[in-house]
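Entry 14. Ran structure prediction on the chain below.
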Amino acid sequence: MSALPTLSQAGFELTAMVTPDAVQVRFTGNADMHAIEPLDAYLASIHTAALERGARRVQVDFRALEFMNSSCFKSFVSWIGRVQDLPTKSQYQIEFQSNAQMHWQRRSLNALRCFATDLVVVQT
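Output, structure tokens:
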């Protein structure tokens, strides 16, 4: 396992680990408007890491994420689009782990899943 750089801002943090078959990303805190630009860049680095390592999936752990604004969710729509644009053999699955106690996650993640039902999985 190897770690990718941590993204840390006041009240928001992203950490990522690369395993032989997956990239694991953990979100904590609140992803508000100040997180948009860094999040875009971080998701691009996750995408690159997944491709370079031939990962079959990226696990995104939202269980400790209290809030994410709609502009940050747009970053995920763009990321999913980049994965969809890849040749089928290079695509990887994006698996969201959500917190059932945070109802906004269920609604928002199910909406994301609708963009690519063959690539996006939501677990509670």
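The beta strands are 2-9, 12-18, 22-31, 57-68, 93-97, 120-123. Will compare against last week's run tomorrow.
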